[in-house]
Each structure stands twice: as C-alpha cells, then as structure tokens.
Amino acid sequence: MGNVYIKFKSDGQVQEIDSGNHELLAGEEVLVEGEYGLEIAFVVQKELFLQQKEEEGRDAKEKKAVVFIRKLNESDKEKAKKLNLVAKDFLEECRGKIAKYDLPMQLIDADLSFDEKKLTFYFTAPSRVDFRLLVSDLAHTFKKVIRLQQIGSRDEARYLGGVGRCGQLLCCKRFLKGNLESVTLDMATVQNLSGSGSNRVTGVCGKLMCCLKYELENYKDTKKNMPEIRSEYKTPSGKGIVISQNVVKNSISVKLDEGGQIVEVKC
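Structure (tokenized):
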C-alpha cells in the first residue's frame, strides 16, 4: 500500500506512484493517467526503479505526475484485449509507410492506449532512425498521438514468442511483464554456469536467460554452506579435493587422493 513502482509498456519507463490504500503485487496490471491520457502499466519491483535512476544519472528528466486510477478489473482486461486487436489492424498501414520512406526498421507490434488517444508502434533497428516524417504521416492518418518505440532483442522475443531450451514457451511471453531486474553474468557464476559456454546461458534473444534470476538468493545461501573449490574435503570414501559445486543439487564433486576417483557428495 502507498507508493508503488510501475512500468509503462509504451516507453518502458518506470515511475513511482501513490496507489492509496490499494495493495498491489509485482506483475499486476493497473490503469493510470499520465501525460497522454489513460494507459495500462505493470507493477514492478523497486529495484527496477532504482536501476533506471542509476542508468539515467544526471541526465534524468523530470517526469509528469502519474495518477493511479485502479487495478485492472475483468471488464478492463476484456477492453484491453479488444484494443490490442484493433492496434494489430494498424500494422500493415505502418509497414507501408516505413517502406514509403525507405527506413531501416522492422515493425514488431502496436499498442493502443486505454482511451485510444495514443498509438505506439514497436520496432527494431540496427541503429538510431530518423522517423520524424513517418511520425507526422502516421499522426495525420490515424488522428492520434503517435509514439515509435525502438526495442531490444529481449523485448522482441517477448512480443514474438517462441520456445526456450527447456521446451516451454518463453517466460517473457507467458508471464514476465518486464518486472525482472537486469540479468548479469554474476548470476550464472553463482550457479557455476559461466564456464559452460555462452550457448548454455543465453536465450533465444541472444541475451542471458531470465531464469538465471529465479531462486538466485536460495542459490547464494546454499553456496555459503558449501566447501570451497580446491579445498580439502573428507568423504565416506576417503579424503580428496573439491573440484566442483552443484548449487542446484546442493552437492559437490570430490577427487579422491587415492586412485583419483571422483565422487559426488551431498552437502
């Protein structure tokens, strides 16, 4: 209750708002009123807000106040689905105009704000694109506030979907709503995966897999109670040297002094 942190789908910005007496959880959708009217946003963790502030640094611009309206109800969700379908109908028109101006960008998706005043198109591009003429043309055609949002490979995977190495639909498509902190190589190191080759820890987007963040604190706690690699360790089969840790299985591999046999021991 009180202040919470939300992330706008249309521009990826995270802001702090006052939710009053409403108790909101990360991942829940809310309706807010911002600079361009009514929009849907996702509740995110405070760490994501702090991370954005750190990245913006001194260049951070003062943001317009955002007013919390309500947590999305079933009627709101139905309307959002219909608006999503309407926005999809605008994609071909936009692709035609991109071709008209010969712009090096690939259109991925579109989004219509809750009050239908703002239309956002999401695209990927190898570099920055001067799309001022395109925006003007789109605004004249659709009679709405137009936003063109360049997205990265993670967001592209979230919009297009796919299957991960686990055989399941991508987490970012199924349930993640941009409320996960940055995934770092340190997370793979904690799980002893950083030396397994990049193909073991990268997802279909080419970035580190989001699931490296799952249960990370548990892995850290587990690792604290494990003997260090290259330390001496006594097993039921004899003494040896710890050569690896498996934090997922909570076990270590020990190379015995006699015979060089490698045994796995639960911690």
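The chain has nine helices and twelve strands. The chain has a mean pLDDT of 88.
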